Amino acid sequence: MIAALLIAFGVVFVAELGDKSQLMVLTLATRFPAVKVLLGITVATALIHLISVLVGGAVAEVLPTRLITVLAGLAFLGFGIWTLRGDDDGDEDPEVAGGRSPLVAATIAFFLAELGDKTMLASMTLAARNGIIGTWIGATAGMVAADAIAVVVGAALGRRLPERAIRTLAGVLFLVFGVILIVEGLRG
């Protein structure tokens, strides 16, 4: 189990560096409190890798990744439009404006970004070869460690950039990632 954990940690950590979801985390951390973003990605990562290792442990090629990738891309387009539009009422509590909390936003966005991603597929493959529990723990820890770097950088940028610039950058990046995911899914 220790070998599976270490292998999964290393593979997922390296695979996540520079990935679109890591860039998205950096963007989220410029807009939302770092602790909530980190907690959101931890929850999403634990869930996504639990799903992937269970699927990988049972059947290596069960997930229709093309369809999931296109749906995730459409969701990203929605996140981009929502981010660019901003909140209409400036007197709402930013933590719960319109019922959207930073924790929920980070969790959902990150979960969708990782569906069908190379790290999910890697953890499926590793689980099929090395076992479920060690792979799940290692993959989750590796992804959270890589994305924690993006949270720290994003939080530092968020303190230095104007909120309108952050919102515009975040919205545009969500739209770009949405288009990339849709193209990836359609190319298959």
- Percent range for helical residues? over 70%
> What share of the residues does DSSP label as strand, in percent?
under 5%
> Any idea what the radius of gyration is?
17 Å
Say how many strands there are: 0
Query: N-to-C terminal Cα separation, in Å?
Result: 33 Å
Report mean pLDDT, rounded to a whole number: 80
| Major β-sheet annotation | none
Which shape, going by the Cα principal axes?
A: globular
Q: Strand pairing plus helix content: what structural class?
A: mainly alpha
**Element pattern in H and E:** HHHHHHHH
Weakly predicted, low-confidence segments? 88-99
Number of helices in the DSSP assignment: 8
What features would you describe in this structure?
- The chain has about 190 residues and is mainly alpha-helical.
- The protein is about 80% helix and about 0% strand.
- It has helices at about 1-15, 20-30, 35-60, 65-85, 100-115, 120-130, 130-160, 165-185.
- The N and C termini lie far apart (about 35 Å).
